[in-house]
Design a protein that fits this description.
Elements (H helix, E strand, L loop, with lengths): L3 E8 L2 E5 L4 E6 L6 E2 L4 E5 L2 H32 L8 H33 L2 E3 L4 E4 L8 E2 L4 E7 L4 E7 L11 E6 L5 E9 L8 E3 L5 E3 L11 E9 L11 E6 L2
Antiparallel strand pairs: 1-10, 1-16, 2-9, 3-5, 3-8, 4-7, 5-6, 7-9, 10-15, 11-12, 11-16, 12-15, 13-14
Length: about 250
């Protein structure tokens, strides 16, 4: 008889969306459980402060360029003067000022790139095709950089984890064909064994106070088979309503 189990779970990868800049939510363009597409705009953080920062940085760069051009012309003029008209120290000072302005200009350019990046981060977009979940945001909420905002279920990543008793593992192998029956609507899906778990936790074993293994007493007449997780990839699930965490029955063809 083909190995099977009723203890299967629908799973999917979850993309956690985190704020990269701080500010108030100016636009909230989604609702909980909504389907979204990759790169779709989800929300907008008030960009005012970041736009001002960018313009200030650009003004600072323009001022430094003006100072640099003036210092460069001054150095060129002084370099043509005789040693009687200008001392060696004055010439070195002019060169040092030009070098200092060059470094300040490079630093200012970096600040502009950072300001542009922060401004772009006020628009938060979906990294995947999927479904919004755990949305507790409201327009006007203040969010902090680094804070988790919401999660998106990646609709291109559905799979099944089947917990199979060790006594049924003999003929299970990667690429075995699999039939998955959903508990929610009895719909059958096809798939393949993608991988087989290599280790499970031993609840009866732990380290004691003296770093020696401490094994809990058990009852030899009650011997329950351990369950091994089997990862199953799914085929042709377009249009199928899958909910991660729900259960299913899994039949594996040996």
């Amino acid at each position: 008889m083909s190995p099977w189990t009723r203890d299967g779970r629908i799973r999917a990868e979850v993309s956690e969306i985190t704020a990269e800049v701080s500010g108030k939510i100016e636009k909230l363009l989604i609702v909980d459980n909504q389907e979204v597409k990759k790169n779709e705009l989800l929300l907008v953080v008030d960009p005012t402060d970041y736009d001002i920062k960018l313009r200030e940085s650009e003004i600072e760069l323009n001022e430094l360029i003006v100072q640099y051009n003036f210092a460069k012309s001054q150095l060129a003029r002084r370099s043509k003067l005789s040693q009687v008209a200008i001392s060696k120290e004055e010439l070195e000072d002019a060169k040092s000022r030009l070098d200092s302005l060059t470094k300040k200009i490079e630093l200012s350019k970096v600040k502009i790139e950072k300001a542009k990046l922060d401004l772009s981060r006020t628009e938060i977009r979906s990294p995947v095709n999927g479904f919004i979940t755990n949305l507790n945001l409201r327009k006007g909420n203040y969010i902090s950089a680094g804070a988790p905002l919401l999660a998106i279920i990646d609709e291109d990543s559905y799979y099944v984890i089947a917990y199979l008793e060790e006594t049924k593992m003999r003929n299970v192998a990667v690429d075995n064909n699999v039939t998955v029956t959903l508990y929610s609507n009895n719909e059958e899906l096809k798939g393949k064994v993608q991988s087989i778990g290599r280790a499970i936790d031993d609840n009866n074993s732990r380290t004691g106070n003296q770093l020696l293994e401490n094994v809990e007493p058990n009852y030899p007449w009650v011997r329950l088979a351990q369950r091994v997780p089997i990862k199953v990839s799914l085929n042709n699930i377009d249009g199928v309503h899958l909910i991660p965490g729900t259960t299913c029955t899994v039949f594996i063809e040996d």
